[in-house]
Write a structure and sequence with these properties.
Layout (H helix, E strand, L loop, with lengths): L2 E9 L3 H12 L4 E5 L5 H5 L2 H17 L13 H12 L5 H9 L2 E5 L2 E5 L2 E4 L3 E11 L3 E3 L15 H5 L7 E5 L3 H12 L3 E5 L11 H13 L3 E3 L4 E7 L2 E6 L4 E4 L1 E4 L3 E3 L33 E3 L10 H19 L23 E3 L4 E6 L9 E7 L3 H6 L6 E7 L4 E9 L6 H9 L4 H4 L12 H9 L2
Parallel strand pairs: 1-2, 1-6, 2-3, 6-16, 8-9, 8-14, 9-10
Antiparallel strand pairs: 4-5, 5-6, 7-15, 11-12, 12-13, 17-18, 18-21, 19-20, 20-21
Helix pairs in contact: 1-9, 3-4, 3-7, 7-8
Length: 464
């Protein structure tokens, strides 16, 4: 057992925790970064990076087939796809992340950190750490497991098992129509699996406009995925040759693997928050500076998925910048700016959260997906049909939506669906965050011939 004191202790060494630690260290503070698995976290080894590596080859093959004259085959090479994924993840070797932390003045500590008192963290093995100024929690989230009879007897896949798979199962069942479900269903279909996607509603991605879910379900079916809508699982069981799934409605399927992708919850179990009067398993509610609202003393901060605010890596890193800078300012005796859109405030979490679903077609959205009841909102929907999209792919099919606050004449939401629309998203994000008046957007002239020309058609449809 040893006792050490730091200015700041960050629990969770994923991208969000790394950013919080770096910002605090940049402010001249001595920072410890505690991680019980791999420095670099979920995103680097089991989520964002490997999932996109698995999706990209299939998307590229589909895109190439839409342009005559491009010599393409009929299938991707799974071994090559897995090898490229492994290059990006380093096969789980986090040596580079540890060296990065040390290089920017952060002390990496490997072990499970548990809060044991005010500014106190105990790490596996008994090491006791004390923070002079703040503890920042960045422990992320864990899968939410549904209560399905027999599920605990078949060793189902979670997202980690899917993104780190070394072989393609002949038959794959996927439960859940969220981002993980649709992305992994399409990825494994293009890798050669017989895929069955089981969703409860009429379409996947229910929080997005219906045209987004309709486009994705069409893309999944084109990739060979069988989609079971209005369904679910009554039970699962092990049988000779695989796992039998009893679908709601009476149908039965036998698959080799079942991926359960039914959402995630904040990772606060085992964190010791109950010693502070907080509920284990519940999110750590924060203000926009990252302070945990229910804990007195301005010493406990939280960022990323664990807060339940915006469970996306980029939003977590954004909040981590604000929290790290807030802690550094507070430690230096300087004012912490809580005003909206200040350097210390994660204001965008309330107004402009961008997200991309990397299926074929892609879905890119930011802000509101539709009008809010009682608000002065107008929705403009159009097809993406411009010279740039026609040149980009034969029979290009895509849609775009703007949600406009008609009192202020500014955007409050945008959604794009189609091949390669992800790169349209940041312009919409800037327009929303900057509250750029729509008449001014008319003067942001898109290059010809690009898919960005859709902005002109959207403004015309609005009446400008």
């Amino acid at each position: 057992m040893s006792a050490q004191t730091f200015d700041v202790i960050v629990i969770g060494g994923g991208p969000v925790g790394e950013v919080a630690a770096e910002r605090a260290a940049r402010g001249g503070l001595q920072v410890a970064l505690v991680e019980h698995e791999r420095f670099g976290g979920e995103c680097s080894y089991w989520a964002c990076i490997p999932s996109k590596a698995l999706l990209r080859p299939g998307n590229l093959l589909a895109a190439a087939k839409r342009v005559p004259g491009v010599p393409v085959g009929d299938a991707v090479d799974p071994a090559a796809v897995f090898a490229r994924r492994d290059w990006f993840t380093g096969k789980g070797d986090d040596t580079g992340q540890v060296k990065w932390a040390e290089g920017v003045g952060i002390v990496p500590i490997r072990g499970h950190g548990r809060i044991t008192g005010e500014r106190k963290v105990t790490v596996d093995g008994g090491d006791e750490l004390t923070a002079r100024h703040a503890v920042i929690v960045a422990t992320g989230s864990v899968p939410r497991t549904p209560s399905i009879p027999g599920l605990d007897t078949i060793s189902p896949w979670g997202s980690r098992e899917a993104t780190s798979a070394e072989a393609v199962p002949r038959r794959l069942g996927v439960l859940g129509g969220g981002v993980v479900g649709v992305e992994m269903a399409q990825a494994f279909a293009t890798l050669g699996a017989e895929v069955h996607l089981i969703i409860s509603g009429a379409r996947p991605l229910p929080r997005l406009p219906e045209f987004a879910g309709d486009a994705v379900i069409a893309g999944l079916r084109e990739a060979g995925v069988t989609v079971h809508t209005g369904s679910g699982l009554d039970s699962v069981s092990a049988v000779d040759g695989g796992k039998e799934l009893a679908l709601k409605g009476g149908d039965r399927l036998v698959v080799d693997e079942l991926l359960v992708a039914t959402g995630r919850r904040p990772a606060t179990d085992g964190l010791g928050v109950e010693t502070l009067g907080l509920e284990a398993g519940a999110p750590l509610t924060t203000d926009d500076n990252g302070r945990v609202s229910a804990v007195d003393g301005d010493w406990l901060f939280a960022v990323g998925d664990v807060t339940g605010r915006a469970p996306l890596t980029h939003q977590g890193k954004y909040a981590a910048r604000a929290a790290g800078d807030s802690v550094a300012a507070q430690a230096a005796g300087k004012p912490v700016d809580s005003a909206a859109w200040s350097a210390h405030s994660a204001t965008a979490d309330h107004h402009a959260i961008p997200q991309v679903v990397f299926t074929d077609p892609e879905v890119a959205s930011v802000g509101l997906a539709g009008p809010e009841e009682g608000k002065p909102h107008r929705v403009v929907d159009i097809d993406i049909a411009v010279a740039g999209s026609s040149l980009h792919a034969d029979r290009y099919a895509g849609k775009a939506r703007l949600v406009v606050d008609t009192e202020r004449d500014v955007l409050v939401g945008a959604t794009f669906v189609g091949q390669d629309v992800a790169e349209l998203l940041h312009s919409a994000t800037i327009a929303i965050v900057g509250e750029v008046p729509l008449p001014r957007l008319w003067h942001a002239v898109p290059s010809f011939p690009t898919i960005s020309e859709v902005w002109l058609r959207l403004l015309e449809a609005y009446g400008l």
